[in-house]
Structure formats: C-alpha cells, structure tokens
C-alpha cells in the first residue's frame, strides 16, 4: 500500500533527516554572513526560499526527477546549466573574473592577448549595481547582439570589506568612467570625444546630431556603472594627492616618482630603408606599431614611429638601418599633443605637461572656483549625482549657491605604461572608487595574435606569471 505523503507543516518537519537540518544550518550561516557583507537587509526575504528548498519543500523543486523519457533528460540539463550559471554569477560578482588585454596601453607589463585572473576581493568585492545580468557577458549578448542586463533595479554603490586599499603602482581593472553614454557604431573614440570633435566642426548640439544620424553613429545608449567597458591601467595618483606632469615626468605632491622599467615612449627613428618585420618582432615591437617606414617629404628622410622601453631603445640604436639620433615623438613637433583633460578647458596643458591637479578624496572639501570648475565638474555632477551649474560667475550645487563641495568617494589617477599610446586619465580624468573592479593576480593564458599556432602563438613563459612585475619599483 502506497504511503501517504506528508502535506502538513508538522508532518514535513518531522520527516526531515538530521543531515538535512545540518546542511540547512550551514547554508543559513553562510547566507546570513553574505547578507551582512552585502549591507542589504532586504536580502533576508530570500531566507524563506532556503527553508523551503532544504526543509519544508512545499514547492516541488525536483518534480522532474519522477518523470521518464525526454522530460527528465531535458530538465536534468536545465538544472545543471542553471546551477552552473548561478555559481558563475557569484564567483564573477564576488570573487574574481577572467579579463583579456585588448590593447597595448600597458605594454610591456601586460601584452595584448594576455588573459588575466582579476581578484575582486583585494579591494573588496563591489556589490552588483545592476544585479539582473547574464554573468558571461559584460553588456552585450553575442550573436543576438542585445543587452546582457536589465537596467532596473539599480542598487546603490556598496563594497564589501577588502584586504587592502589601492596603492600606487597597482594595476587595476575598472569600468571606463566615460562609458556611461555610447554610440554603438562608434565606440572608439567614445561619445564624449565625438561630441568634442563635432563642436570643433561647428555643430551646436552634438547629442542631437548623433541621434539624428543613426546610420553613422548607431543607437545612443546609456550603460550603468558596472556594465561599462572594462579598462586596465596602472595607479599613479591616490586620493588627496596633488599631481602634475612636466616633460613626461610625474610629480606627486611636488616630488618626482620613479618609472617602472617597462615604461615605453614613442620615438621617431630615421632609417635608410625598410626594417624587416622579423627584426621588429625579435625586439618586441608589435606589427601594428611598426608600420612603415613613413616618408617625411619636408625633411627628406624616412622614419618609423615606434614605442620603446629604455632597453629596447639601447638595442635599436645599434641597428645599421638607423641613420640618425632617435627623437621622442612628443618633442618632434609632428603631433598635436593637446586635447587632454579637462575637455574644452583652456589650461594650456598638453600630454607631457599637465597640472597641478588635486585628486578628490572622500570626506575632503574642495573650494570650487571658476578656475578649477572644469576639473571637478564631471565628478560632482555625473559620478556623485548632483546638479551643478555656473551662472554669472557663481556656482550652484543642487540649486543653491555654494563655493564648497565635500566629496562622497575616493578618486584615482590611472595611466598606461605605454605612455604615448594610452588613453588614460590624461584624457578623461579621475576614476571614481565605485568604478573599481579589482586587480589582476596572475596570467591564465597568453596568446600572441600576430603569430600562428606553430610559431609561438602561445606565450608559455607568461602562463601563471605575475602580471605586475614592476610593482616593487613604486
């Protein structure tokens, strides 16, 4: 005779095995600890779900296990995939995540094709501000090409306790600060660069121009902080410090700081003819950086414009193809070095000469003036969510006239080691703390996109290596 299933709460509790109670207690403790770290008591509303999964089982979670045939097979796969996605979601959100280096801005510390494991616990894991998202895509689902997230709800910024704070010299992965607005067909340069270029051409309303020309720019979309593009740079300036750059030398609070050995600068290299591609490759110069030679019709010589470390420069100067002294690109007069942060301001700054810039610190109060307004406008308005405007020489914050503002977050100044080919804080300013993702701890795999599988495509000497060998120099 078939036994009667326990339907009442009392009967269900009586039928729960001791081992299941123990598992439920362990899971509950972990859950409560997680809620405390998240700083969101509303999450306690999920605890009854755990009670039902482990104890009461009013919801038939495993109904499919009693079925036969295709239903059981399909649901077994669905069950496994859902569990895997939930596990990946929690690992990627609170522990760490894989990240690939797409550009050469940190060469030679990090190479294009390096795949890093980024530790999110070192500075404290950031609670997902956009909690409903597909864990394997940053902002766009492949193939279907749609958003990988739902914009609502948006949670306030909160970070779990970390091991330590960000230090100078740390390589940090963060969400691109100016990635809040994106023209989908033209993502590099970004929306704000496009607007600046349009204004320079006499377009009075760049945003309207972009929206009215979707065939050229694509759809204009807004992205939440944690769904913006990931960037990776080296920490140069810390909260509360004063930074300046003079002739490419960086000064913090008036003192010059050391450069890592891997810093690269671009040089103009006069040559008597083409240099074989293999020779550039042996030196460590990427093929896309060694295009040429370029013919200077005015001065009558051919040259390459190539990024070099000090060691690479010393080696290259011995080449028979080199017919003259190497000149720093920034001193050659061949490039326009303006267009740096803050956009549209007339400080007379260039890429190798900037400052003095005070880096905002949480709790510190700034005397805001018409002279420094352009430096801190975006931080106060966009990153910290205030209304800000200047009328008739007076500054209004949230509708009230005020010359002082106290910052809610810490900010950082980030730069690439490939100094003349890095889009970094020199162009878009400060990185707010709520944009910080984590720091790479080791290289998972490194693939050279310029080599074939049987010609050194896999850089085995970089696997499991420290991605920041110059950290001790700071």
Question: How does this model look, in words?
Answer:
The chain is an alpha+beta fold and 474 residues long. It has eleven helices and 24 strands. The protein has helices at 9-14, 18-38, 47-56, 70-94, 191-200, 206-211, 214-217, 277-283, 310-316, 373-383, 425-428, and strands spanning 96-100, 114-119, 140-141, 146-147, 171-175, 181-183, 220-222, 230-237, 242-246, 249-252, 255-256, 265-271, 294-296, 301-308, 327-328, 354-358, 365-367, 388-391, 394-397, 400-401, 404-406, 411-415, 431-432, 436-446. Strands 1-2-24-5-8-22-23 form a seven-stranded antiparallel sheet. Strand 9 and strand 10 (249-252) form a beta hairpin. Helix 2 (18-38) packs antiparallel against helix 3. The radius of gyration is 27 Å and the shape is globular. The protein starts with 8 loop residues before the first helix and ends in a 28-residue tail after the last strand. The mean pLDDT is 91.
